[in-house]
Design a protein that fits this description.
The structure is a single chain. The protein is α/β, with parallel strands linked by helices. It contains eight helices and seven strands; from the N terminus they run βαβααββαββααβαα. Strands 1, 2, 3, 4, 5, 6 and 7 form a seven-stranded mixed sheet that branches. β5 and β6 form a beta hairpin. The chain is globular and about 50 Å long.
């Protein structure tokens, strides 16, 4: 369908979403140090949307410099809780702490995507979903975490909306693909338009 699409991410979920929508891709992780970028942008008091967009762009452009002829898709998702970015947990203790901070509250899952070619951004899009978590006691949160493998926990942040993570929420407003990290419909529209 397209000359060549590269996904600047080792996310199995993002690759799966692209392929489900008929976009074959090659995976070339960007190896961008997300924590350093987030800390720097946080110090500058940038919004979670800007942080997500900048990370997606950085990943996309970095890989695009190595593969200038290809469409390179960079993506990033952040949790926005009351204006503060919550990063992926590094261990189960952190995961429990994150769940406790989200407990009984509404937060936003922000997903940004950027497409680069010849080392420069040619398109970007950011989408947001609102998720309200049920009020749960510590034992329920611990039980939920015990059912999730390490791979899933560190890959998808603290919940998998397409799996048992859905049970954590009383309300979900927004596109499921956005919550899983890739607003695919907009990507497909853009690539189709570019290809016409």
């Amino acid at each position: 369908m397209f000359k060549k699409v590269i996904l600047a991410s080792k996310s199995k979920v993002r690759k799966k979403i692209l392929e489900q929508y008929g976009i074959k891709c090659e995976v070339q992780p960007s190896f961008v140090d997300e924590d350093i970028v987030k800390e720097s942008l946080d110090k500058q008091k940038e919004s979670p949307e800007i942080i997500s967009k900048n990370l997606a762009e950085l990943k996309s452009k970095k890989v695009s410099q190595k593969f200038p002829e290809s469409f390179v898709i960079g993506a990033d998702s952040v949790i926005d809780l009351e204006g503060k970015v919550i990063s992926k947990p590094k261990n189960r203790k952190e995961a429990l702490k994150i769940l406790k901070s989200l407990n009984g509250k509404t937060h936003y899952l922000i997903s940004s995507v950027c497409i680069s070619k010849n080392g420069g951004m040619i398109w970007n899009y950011t989408d947001k979903a609102a998720l309200t978590m049920k009020n749960m006691i510590n034992e329920e949160l611990e039980k939920y975490l015990s059912k999730i493998s390490d791979d899933d926990l560190y890959a998808y942040n603290v919940y998998q909306i397409e799996g048992i993570g859905r049970s954590l929420f009383s309300s979900i407003e927004g596109n499921e693909n956005t919550i899983m990290g890739l607003p695919i419909e907009k990507i497909k529209d853009y690539l189709n338009e570019y290809n016409d």
